[in-house]
């Protein structure tokens, strides 16, 4: 069984920063990639950022200048540094783990990020 435990969400003022963490544990044979999606009320889940175990990254268009994703392979942990947060970034952020190369295999429970203006 695989578990993803997220931390770091909360309430922040517009222009502020937050750092999300997601640690994977359990029966993990290999990690192809980890990353984050988010879902705001009334909207579809969208990709925020992803990173392969080799360090290749991809970002959603709305965050690529402001957010930075990183991975610690030794700890099976992915981080998302979010700067210059805007009210539009308010959402539940979900961590994912891709073990096959075909997209998310496992999901975290989600962590709320609220940006107040």
Explain the overall architecture:
By secondary structure, the chain is mostly beta strands. It contains no helices and eleven strands. The chain has strands at 2-7, 10-13, 18-26, 33-39, 46-52, 57-59, 67-72, 77-82, 91-98, 106-107, 111-116. The strands form two sheets. Strands 2, 4, 5, 6, 9, 10 and 11 form a seven-stranded mixed sheet that branches. The radius of gyration is 13 Å and the shape is globular. The N and C termini lie far apart (40 Å). The model has no long low-confidence stretch (mean pLDDT 96).
One letter per element, helices H and strands E, the order comes to: EEEEEEEEEEE
**Separate helix tally:** 0
**DSSP strand count:** 11
Mean pLDDT: 96
**Strand residue percentage:** over 45%
What is the distance, rounded to the nearest whole angstrom, between the alpha carbons of the first and last residues? 40 Å
Low-confidence stretches: none
Structural category: mainly beta
* Biggest beta-sheet profile: 7 strands, mixed
CA gyration radius, whole angstroms: 13 Å
Q: What best-fitting shape do the alpha-carbon axes yield?
A: globular
| Percentage of residues assigned to helices | under 10%
């Amino acid at each position: 069984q695989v578990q993803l435990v997220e931390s770091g969400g909360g309430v922040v003022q517009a222009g502020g920063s937050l750092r999300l963490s997601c640690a994977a544990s359990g029966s993990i044979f290999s990690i192809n990639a980890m990353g984050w999606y988010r879902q705001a009320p009334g909207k579809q889940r969208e990709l925020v950022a992803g990173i392969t175990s080799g360090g290749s990254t991809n970002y959603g268009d709305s965050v690529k200048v402001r957010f930075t994703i990183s991975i610690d392979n030794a700890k099976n942990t992915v981080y998302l540094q979010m700067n210059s947060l805007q009210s539009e970034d308010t959402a539940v952020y979900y961590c994912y783990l891709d073990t096959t190369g075909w997209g998310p295999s496992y999901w975290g429970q989600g962590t709320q990020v609220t940006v107040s203006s």
